Amino acid sequence: MNIHPGKKSVTDIPSLAGRRHALRSAAAAIAAPALVACGGGTSFSSFAQGVPTAVSQAINEFTAMAPDTSGALVRTDVSPIPWSAGQGTERKLFAASAVKTFILAQFLREAEAPGSSIGLSTRCEVSDAQRSISSSVLGGLTGTSNYGNVLDAMIARSDNTATDIAMAAAGPDRVRALIAQAGLANTQIFDSTRRVFSYLAGAPIGVDLGWPGMLKILSGDNAGLTPRTDVINPTESMLSSASDLVAWYEQALTGKFFATAASLREFKRISSQATALWQVVPADVVSYGKGGSIDWEDFHALSLAGQMRFNNVPVTFAFVLNWKGGETSNERTPAFGAAASKVLNAVADALRKA
């Protein structure tokens, strides 16, 4: 779905084929360039010996699309010497809906807690009380569903109504505590997608304009408010770095944050539904992750992060691209997908030869 309220185009992409689900946000994140490293260290000072040339070249091609506002990192857990390669790995960029993975994990943690009142089969309300912009699954529905369906919609279709329902159940502060527990210093999440939209529309900090306010945003009606453009802000945003996203999936997919094997299985099941994965990851390879995209005024973003298992080797990856002006995220999606796919296929080729 594409939304064009006035000059603004808001998109959120769970699929690199071009399906769009709007999530209104933008950012311009610029940081000093980072280089490449071998192993798990954080001092990325040079192209380390042992990183396949084709992988390094493919990462260079990806980051060349936005040299100062992109981040890419792949890390392999191959024996006997793991290696990693990346550029811009520590840049705090607008990661769009890639951050919804944290909401999924915290919901599952809440559900597995002793005495919990919520679970995948627990019924939840779907109404204008939670409805948000760009909700291709729940947007036109009123009634009840179960949280399992809500989580599927949040990850597979990036449904923002589903996201806000799941976030309310997981608790924004508890999601932030999980991010802190994982050691992700460059990651920031919102309280709700409606709060993000309300903030950008010019509402006072912390005010939710509600579904009537969302309808005004869609129609281009500012309702007397002065819209903001500081999408990177300390209250309502969707930020992360390639390094944080890789560190997250490396930890989460081992079950570090879950008390039960069932929760880890559910995290993997839902994370495998992200529709961008099958267009970037080599064919027939198991993978987990989440992507997203944004267009706001002249700012644009595309992202995809997760992990694939090739020849039983975990390969964890993150690709984040921010840019101003020029092509929209929709127009640049094919190039983004091709560049990310080239990196992962180069890694797969290297592992075949190992």
UniProtKB/TrEMBL annotation:
<dbReference type="GO" id="GO:0030655">
    <property type="term" value="P:beta-lactam antibiotic catabolic process"/>
</dbReference>
<protein>
    <recommendedName>
        <fullName>beta-lactamase</fullName>
        <ecNumber>3.5.2.6</ecNumber>
    </recommendedName>
</protein>
<dbReference type="GO" id="GO:0008800">
    <property type="term" value="F:beta-lactamase activity"/>
</dbReference>
<dbReference type="InterPro" id="IPR012338">
    <property type="entry name" value="Beta-lactam/transpept-like"/>
</dbReference>
<dbReference type="Pfam" id="PF13354">
    <property type="entry name" value="Beta-lactamase2"/>
</dbReference>
<dbReference type="InterPro" id="IPR006311">
    <property type="entry name" value="TAT_signal"/>
</dbReference>
<feature type="domain" description="Beta-lactamase class A catalytic">
    <location>
        <begin position="85"/>
        <end position="235"/>
    </location>
</feature>
<dbReference type="InterPro" id="IPR045155">
    <property type="entry name" value="Beta-lactam_cat"/>
</dbReference>
<dbReference type="GO" id="GO:0046677">
    <property type="term" value="P:response to antibiotic"/>
</dbReference>
<comment type="similarity">
    <text>Belongs to the class-A beta-lactamase family.</text>
</comment>
<dbReference type="InterPro" id="IPR000871">
    <property type="entry name" value="Beta-lactam_class-A"/>
</dbReference>
